[in-house]
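Posting for a labmate who doesn't have an account.
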Amino acid sequence: MNPRAVQSERVEREQNGSPNQIEEDDYKDLSSPDTCSVEIQTDVDEQKPSSNNSAPLPSMELEMAKLSEQIVEMHRAVCSYVDPVTKRENFDMKMETETTKIAFMNAFYNPEMIGPRTPLDITGRRVATVKDVMDEWKRNFVLFSDWLRALPEYNQMSIEDQIVLAKNRYGTFHWWMCANWTVQAGCEGVCYSNGAYFPKQPEAQCIPDVKGSSGRMYDSLSIPIKELNLDETEIVLMLAVIIFSDELADLTPAGKEHVRMVGNRFVRMLHHHVNSKEYGEAMENGDDTQNSSESQAAVRIAKMMILLSATTNLVYLTSDNIQLMEVLHVVPSEYLCHEVQFIQNSYETP
């Protein structure tokens, strides 16, 4: 795939319309991971305009709910994609015989160079080995690439801004996914996507977690997530909010504006979803109940925003100028094989 060619085609399309408007079809035609795709089934009734009776425009509430449903469907599809067994076996054989440095841009747009799409096994049934840690890093990076490239709002950015955002968001993506997997599996540590978990108890760790990042994630993210009992829509929308949470200094002016605008949109979608839920007794009993429900929704959203800060703090805790090292839990140099070293080099070269 040539990302600049794709970008050129998108620029031509944007000249005929608003580049920031998300069309419903943007979430369609995504059936192949090579084109970052998931397929969303949407039924649209075509109505011919009438001079006497025009169809009412959809309300903002319905539009917000519809967009939320679409991004959840995208998330499910990306997480469920699995490469054929033969492709996975061929990749393992290739990695045993080759040691190649890969630029970050090539790895991100061609994640199959890093690892195969194995089934996500969110069980945390065994303590992670060094190999489990390395396999998790590769699988999570592939998931990260697939997820971002399946998001229409991300594809609206220039290639340069896409790379800047990707380099600076893998850490927060990884921690948010692992924290929610930990809640799902019920393990005490960092749950991985391969059936293993990295324990927070030092004596059980295959690699010394000298900064205590696994325990910090468990206490500052997994426990609050469990207490809030986040639903699937809240988890996915929070992930989108985290990706577009602030303006990075290295983005272009257009990229900064896009991140700000899209981030605000996802926050509004999250507010709408939370406000649409009922809390406590039925809301139709009176204004007092209505006001109480709105207050509870506001408190819930505030607690979710604290999780955003906790996720960012974890990245700052565990990264030393290399945004992707936090997934390795400060791996000693003797364990740094070429799959890890290439990402270090990518931050030093374009």
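Reply:
Got it, the structure tokens are right above this. The chain is about 55% helix and 5% strand.
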